[in-house]
Specification:
By secondary structure, the protein is an alpha/beta fold. It has a single domain, classed as Uracil-DNA Glycosylase, subunit E. Helix content is about 40%, strand content about 15%. The protein contains eight helices and six strands; from the N terminus they run αββααβαβααββαα. Strands 1-3-2-4-6-5 form a six-stranded mixed sheet, sandwiched between helices. The protein is globular, with a radius of gyration of 15 Å. The site of uracil has 11 residues, from helix 3.
């Protein structure tokens, strides 16, 4: 068991649990407000994230930050952002099931330390891995599902929104729904 995120990060930075370790530039551990009770989980680092060592800093990250800000949420203030896999899959392919499995322990430890009240799964990969194996983002986005005392919600990935902007209003509603739920629960905002 790890005492805090800094101690966990130290361990994750040296991870060799799967083949992605060989091609990564940086481990992308996660970033956010220390007391955050909302955890947002993406898929895995892309090229910019791999270069900078921080999640969601490329084009889709900029869109995500803009949408979060509109809902009163931000990595500086009240949320924590991590990914299913901490190292970039080459050519931004989907992470393989065995890579997700190899990385899951780190995410579990992050979750155990943060003890989030709400987890937002960003995109299909996170939602099928964490909420329900046949989760359909287009049908089930925005719905809160309680799992072991934590409210889980899946929504569109910003990369998908860049390709298909028609879903942007729905994704924005989902994030506004999180802010509303956080307020109802009295979470720090
Ligand atoms: N896409 C993700 O799922 N995560 C990132 O960190 C960047 C892009």
């Amino acid at each position: 068991m790890y005492e805090n995120l800094d101690e966990l990060r130290e361990e994750v930075l040296g991870c060799q649990n799967c083949g992605l370790a060989a091609t990564r530039r940086n481990v992308v551990f996660g970033v956010g407000a220390p007391g955050a009770k909302i955890l947002l989980i993406g898929e895995g680092p892309g090229e910019n994230e791999d270069k900078q060592g921080e999640p969601f800093v490329g084009r889709s990250g900029q869109l995500l930050d803009k949408m979060l800000e509109y809902a009163g949420l931000s990595r500086k203030k009240n949320i924590y952002i991590a990914n299913m896999v901490k190292c970039r899959p080459p050519q931004n392919r989907d992470p393989a099931p065995e890579e997700i499995a190899a990385c899951m322990g780190w995410l579990r430890n992050q979750t155990a330390i943060l003890r989030p009240a709400i987890i937002i799964c960003i995109g299909r990969i996170a939602a099928v891995s964490l909420i329900q194996k046949d989760f359909k983002v287009t049908k089930q986005h925005g719905q809160f599902i309680e799992k072991n005392g934590t409210l889980m919600m899946g929504t569109f990935h910003p990369a998908a929104l860049l390709r298909n902007p028609v879903n942007k209003p729905a994704a924005m509603e989902d994030l506004l729904g999180v802010a509303k739920k956080a307020q109802e629960l009295g979470l720090p905002l």
